[in-house]
Amino acid sequence: MQQKPIFAFNLVNVENTIPFWPFAALDDRNQQQQMKARIPVAEEKKSVRVEIYDESYNLCGSDSAYITHLAEVVDAKMRAVAQHTSTVDSLRVAVLAALNLADDYYQLKRKYEGMEGEYTSRASHLGRALDSALDELLAEVRRAG
């Protein structure tokens, strides 16, 4: 059985016009209906036509500018991968581009997590320093008063 992709927004191929929903991987129609009922009503979906690696797609979502930007990023990554490899198979180019994008994501995630830890540590240190300074100030006020 072929596994169905899961997308945050509806992806519709121009020729086939088959939408992929976040719950499309569910096999049981009853499970699909239950999932549909749980998903909150989203903002109005707009359709935008994009081109990724010379293929046209109609993508639906609430922010067409964002979807267009994502398509441009994917297209640029696929073209960069194609320039540096000898393959002409678009599926292989797409997989290599996906691996590159996943690597970019995890590098940024690690960097963010490191910065988050550093900022948390700094904030704790500053909080302790402020508490100490306030304690000293209160002690001086009590001695003077």
Write the layout of secondary structure elements.
Elements: E1 10-13, H1 29-38, E2 46-52, E3 55-61, H2 64-84, H3 90-144
Antiparallel strand pairs: 1-3, 2-3
Helix pairs in contact: 2-3
Notable traits:
alpha+beta, 3-stranded antiparallel sheet, 2 domains, disordered N terminus, elongated, 145 residues, 3 helices
Give me a quick take on this structure.
With about 140 residues, the protein is α+β, with helices and mostly antiparallel strands. About 60% of the residues lie in helices and about 10% in strands. The protein has helices at about 30-40, 65-85, 90-145, and strands spanning about 10-15, 45-50, 55-60.
Helical percent range? 55-70%
Q: Report strand order across the widest sheet.
A: 1-3-2
Assembly type of the chains comes to: single chain
Euclidean distance between termini CA atoms: 81 Å
The low-confidence parts are 1-27
**Beta strand count:** 3
User: Radius of gyration over alpha carbons?
Assistant: 25 Å
- The general outline is elongated
Total count of domains: 2
Largest sheet: 3 strands, antiparallel
| Strand and helix order | EHEEHH
Work out the helix count: 3
Mean pLDDT: 79
Structural class call reads alpha+beta
Approximately how much beta-strand content do the residues carry? 5-15%
